[in-house]
Prior knowledge:
Layout: H1 2-15, H2 22-26, H3 34-42, E1 51-60, E2 69-77, E3 81-88, E4 93-101, E5 107-113, E6 116-122, E7 127-133, H4 142-153
Amino acid sequence: xxxxxxCLLVCLFATGCQTTSLDKATIxxxxxxxxxxxxxxxxxxxxxxxxxxxxxxxxxTPSATHTTNFRFCTYALTxxxxxxxxxxxxxxxxxxxMRIDFAQLTSVDLASFIRSKQVKMRETQRLVGISAxxxxxxxxxxxxxxxxxxxxxxxxxxxxxxxxxxxxxxxxAPAMIIIPRTR
Length: 183
């Protein structure tokens, strides 16, 4: 019983840290130079950027609870849309992965579990879950994630009360294999 509670405590602490040091290694990001570099690389931002940073992204269908579409990214939030970028390591530049126009959203919700927070945005054929990550990588930035949610909700997008985090599907339980002995 003692081991069970110790295991439960470790799992609870790990839940709040859903990213790893891999996010810093896979996505280049420097806060001071990001807006200028994004403009040079993509040429698509002519509006002021309200907020930007590293992020983790889940994609699914509107009724999804689990998805295998996970990636690390950077985001740029404007008053009208949210841009999601990937890092093209071969060319050392940002490439646009996705643009989410707020006018196309049917709902926006803030899901949370312990220290993890995720903005869930629904369109007619897509569900996007995004969490801001601290600049140094490794941890979800709950405050920045909540500011993304508040900025989108301020555009008049309704909330449906969906408070469950999008996540990767649970791993299959290991199966026991019996190998008969030969004599």
